Amino acid sequence: MPDGGVNLDLGAGGAARIPPAAWLTAPGQVFSFTRAVPAKRDYYEVLGVERGAATPDIKKAYRKMAMQHHPDRNPGDAAAEERFKEAAEAFEVLGDDSKRKLYDQFGHEGPSRAGFSGFQGTDEIFSRFGDLFGDLFGNLGGQGRRGGPQRGADLKTRVVIPFAEAVAGIEREITVPRRDACEDCDGSGAAAGTKPETCQTCHGQGQVIHRQGFFTVQTACPRCHGEGQTIASPCRGCGGTGVVQKETTLKLNIPAGVDDGQTLRIPGRGMAGTKGGPAGNLYVVVAVEPDPRFQRDEFDIHSKITISMVQAALGCTVKSPGLQGEVEVEIDAGTQPSHVIVRKGKGIPVLGGRGHGDHHIHVEVTVPTKLSGDQEEILRELAESFGEAVSEKKGFFSSLRKRKR
């Protein structure tokens, strides 16, 4: 597993230390980390767009930055490579509605709540955005290179959890079908005691050049099929591919406070790379089942209780659902309909361990639709004491009086 585990960036706008976390483990293993995070520039500034820019404009700005700072256009330029990665990070956040909303509200800390904290290298960027930009990366190099170590593809899976588990956090086992490095040949594709050899036709380039008059045509090497290497004795375990298909069971720690649709990014748990290249990443989309008792708003929750008009007038104590079970709520005398009682710090845990949201209890007051004779008389006496006009009592004699009028 690459260094860094699941990198939750908690340094909004500046340097910070990432708290230790055991996010993903293979059975019997726990990985934890602590490292410093450098200060980051504003993502809108990185791409040169306004804060209200539309998604197509953000995509256009990123494409321009990616072409300008692409490593193949700036060989040996470390600063250009850093700008290339910075632009990709900015686009990953601003090009995604949920991550952008968190960034606008919480700064650089926000995207970590959706499981994103940057890219580990340019290979990961090529894998992430290669399909989106088509020939942009392929023509410039990046993923299109053959013959050397290739990063594995990313994987995406989905896990469904109840609302209560999203609030409290939960450890879940997930089974992921993936291609992993062959253990027999350590991913080389060659049988034990042998190793891949440099292709004698293309001399390891993976491509050959044909000249036809004034034209020069470059094609994949017909002998090594563009790999740059040949395997005389393929590994029996993988047939010379260097990878095998298997199902891997992983333990996933879902943090308390995760929201529906958020994605956890697990470095190094995607498809295995080829020829010793690094593995891709695993993206786990969390789906949270709703709880009919609560309505979530960021890290606040809303619920409602219903009381009678008498309870609202005189005050009472009623029970209300809470995240930790039922709680008793004091209703003050004279409480009005639509009144909201706020229980500070009794909402959903904020990702990163920075407190809790609030619990908002909305009070609904009901009016009886049927009254007994005694109850009606009591209410009429009450109305008279307040000097309030009410409808006449309905009955046979009241109807006669209205006809005489």
Kindly list the characteristics that best describe this protein:
disordered N terminus, 405 residues, alpha+beta, 3-stranded antiparallel sheet, HSP40/DNAj peptide-binding domain, 11 helices
Task: Describe this structure as you would to a colleague.
26% of the residues lie in helices and 24% in strands. The protein has 405 residues and is of the alpha+beta class. Among the domains are: 197-230, no CATH class; 295-404, Urease metallochaperone UreE, N-terminal domain (HSP40/DNAj peptide-binding domain). The chain has a 4-stranded mixed beta sheet with strand order 13-14-18-17. The chain has a 3-stranded antiparallel beta sheet with strand order 2-10-5. Strands 4-12-11 form a 3-stranded mixed beta sheet. Helix 2 (55-69) runs antiparallel to helix 3 (78-94). Mean pLDDT is 79; it is low at 1-37 and 133-145.
